[in-house]
Amino acid sequence: MRVKKLKYRSKLGEMPSYDVVEREWKIKVNANECGMNLPPMVEERVMGRLSRIAFNRYPNEDLEQLMEAIAGNYGLTKENILIGNGSSEIIEKLFYAFGGKNLTVVYPQPSFSMYDIYAKAAEARSVTVELNREDYSLNIHNFVQKVNDSKAALAVVCNPNNPTGNALTLKEIEDIAEHTSCALLIDEAYVEFYGQSAASLLKKYPKLLIARTFSKAYGLAAVRCGYLLGDASVIAMVAKTFMPYHMDVLTLVTADTVFQMRDEYVPRIQQMIAERNRMSEQYASLPDFKVYPSQTNFIMVRYEKAVQLNESLTEQSIGIRSFGKAPGLENCLRISMGTREENDSVFKAVKAFVEAEA
Ligand SMILES: Cc1ncc(COP(=O)(O)O)c(C=O)c1O
Asked: What is the pTM of this model?
């Protein structure tokens, strides 16, 4: 039976959805996940802890424990930390906290496509600053000017940027912080592959907020855990937007174990960076392929027959991300780094297509 004429919230019907089509891929390199599951020692510890959970109790000290562990790592206190279901939830709540009818959020374009959706959901006005089309660099002066001219409540910078892969220096981030007065979110989903977190600037700039995730370098995308670092007074305000007991104990215990054992991930992260550099060189050797320098676990390339190449890879059950005709990303493809074998197989398939077309 069809449901008709329900009274939905205004503009909900016009809200865009996040456009990912998922299926069983032979090789899945379309979502910037980590190609490897938990390191065996971490898995053993996680399973041990999960087997002792009191499933009948609401989350309690597990949240505090993770907050304290994260705070300690940055020389902060737990009042500076907010934990969320992925950094997605954190960013969504931030747009909500600094959104509403009369408030403006400013961010570069192209960047993480969810910012548009969060702005719409929060009923905030979004103002975008176009990245330079040649190399996707951000003109800091223009960005600062747009933030100030629009009297923004929140400015967002994804650093390194998804999907272009490039990064601002800490000096550039500091320039933005220095010359603006609104809340400034740095979305550091991929920062482990870059190595320069703006967390060091938090004490100097209390309006600075940093979103981090366990989904990428720590390979915990299934678990959904991210966190926000910021000044205690800002964190206390943003915390009001979360439901009580919003984090489940399975997530908290898993993320806490991974955080405690994060040294186990250092060689993996180095390996992923090495793979990114190796594959960037290989893709750059293909005719008519433009490879954008990346500081992340993915590579963005531009190729005139990107749409056809994506179709060919899809037929071979290789999932990459194609941006089709998205503004500023025409003919661009984003290829996440998987295992060495996966990267070689994807490259082989891409090379065969490109050579046949050349
Ligand atoms: C730039 C950026 N920020 C945030 C996220 C959200 O990640 P998660 O919710 O898994 O922490 C992603 C995921 O792809 C991302 O690319």
From this structure: 0.97
